[in-house]
Structures are given as structure tokens and as C-alpha cells.
Amino acid sequence: xxxxxxxxxxxxxxxxxxxxxxxxxxxxxxxxxxxxxxxxxxxxxxxxxxxxxxxxxxxxxxxxxxxxxxxxxxxxxxxxxxxxxxxxxxxxxxxxxxxxxxxxxxxxxxxxxxxxxxxxxxxxxxxxxxxxxxxxxxxxxxxxxxxxxxxxxxxxxxxxxxxxxxxxxxxxxxxxxxxxxxxxxxxxxxxxxxxxxxxxxxxxxxxxxxxxxxxxxxxxxxxxxxxxxxxxxxxxxxxxxxxxxxxxxxxxxxxxxxxxxxxxxxxxxxxxxxxxxxxxxxxxxxxxxxxxxxxx
Length: 296
Known about the structure:
Blueprint: H1 3-15, H2 18-25, H3 29-43, E1 48-50, E2 55-57, H4 59-83, E3 89-95, H5 97-104, H6 108-114, E4 118-124, E5 138-143, E6 151-157, E7 160-164, H7 166-172, E8 185-189, E9 197-201, E10 207-211, E11 213-218, H8 221-229, E12 235-238, H9 239-247, E13 252-253, E14 259-261, E15 268-273, H10 281-294
Parallel strand pairs: 3-4, 3-5, 8-11
Antiparallel strand pairs: 1-2, 5-15, 6-15, 7-12, 7-13, 9-10, 9-14
Helix pairs in contact: 1-3, 1-4, 2-3
């Protein structure tokens, strides 16, 4: 079977249809459909369930995808290694919307200048991408530990504190201890991560939990920051997200000696990739660049 056909199968599986892949490759959808049908005939089993509305992997197709995708990636890496050390091709980097907007987008001119042969695809999503099954080369993720099955390089700490606008402090009074937040309006994160118990670790190492509440919950960290600047509540935000607002005097840290969290302490920004085996020059160059620019 042809390597190009396997790449086509992988693309169709991720796109969930023939038409999106055909548009991307500027070919007729029938050519894509016939290629997949030919692969199914060669394999002797059906890869996709087809209906008039959707295309879904069969159980056998899912197992086949999980097996061949890493192999195809390794073959592509081997080809790049054999061609030499030229840094070229498409480098796909995934990060959260907030981190990508604030920390990565400003680095793109320098990355392009350092490696003009690279095409950079920046996937900004708050969904946790799967580096093994999805076409992503590098991910940056906030976590206390490296996710299982991945290679991780620590970039910098990602510490949370409680912030508020000066106008909020003027209206609601100073906060000198975590317990002072009880009864004051706070901004909460909406959705499954919404937690009304904030944990604090003081300079002495002891931890305490405070119940907080407020009339506004928002799902986007960048929107929570904007609402906090507008004086709508005190909130938990990470240091790299608020550095500009602190410098501009738009926000103040209410308890600078207390690390805060709604989950676990000690989160870091991790540079993640799937495998050290046959690492293509483009991925190695991307890792080195990001580590140099973002590492503490």
C-alpha cells in the first residue's frame, strides 16, 4: 500500500469526512472516496461507517488508525533525517487560547526569522489535544506534572494569585488574609472547572481553604481578566496572564505572599511532544526556540 494513501486515511479520520480533505488538497471528493475504498479492499475490512450525514471510524478503523499514525509520523521523520538537517516544512504547535495569544503570537516574527523555511501552524484551543493521534508536533500545557506517555520539558512556573482592580479594592476594602475574601464578590470560572473553594499556601507553608462566591462566572481566562480589570470581582489568575495589567496599574495582587489555586499547587508550563525517536529537524528546532524564548 502507498504511504500517500495512509496519509490520506489519517487526514480523513481526523477531518471526519471526504469533502474537507478534498478541499484542503484541491481534488475532487470522489478521488478521496475511491482511494479510501481501495485501501479498505486491500486491507479486507471497512475503515469507516458511511451515512448520508457523517463518516465515522469503525472499531477496526480506530485500531488501525492508532497503529499506523505513529508509524507514518516516524517514516516522515526518517525521511527528513535522511535529507539532512534543513529546518523546513510545517510545524504545528498547540496551546491554550490565552497562552498562545499572549506568549506565542509575539514570538512568531522571531521564529520565522530564525527558520524561514518553516510554515508555522498555531492551534489555539482550550481542549487538551492528543499528541499521539492528532497531527500536532508540539504542545504547551499547564500542569503540575508531565501527562503520561509524553516527553516534557519544563518552561517556567505558572503560579496563581488573587487579583483585583484598584476600584474594587476601594469599594470593598483591603484583603490582608485569605479569609477576608469570604463575602466579597469574586469572579468564578464557568463550566466544569468552576470551583467555589479557593486554596491558599502561605509563606510559612501552611494551606487553608476559603469559600468564595460572586454573581459572575466566565469560561475564558482572558475574559475573566478583562472583567477583573473592569472591577467586577476579585479572581484567581496566573502570573503570566496578568503581568501587563500589573505593570499598567490596572490590577493589584491582593495576597502577594500567598499562592492560590482551585485545584493543585505547583503548576508549570510544559513543552510537550510525543516521542524522542527520529525527531525531525523542524520539531527539534521548534523545541529549542521555544525553550530559549520561554524558559525561565
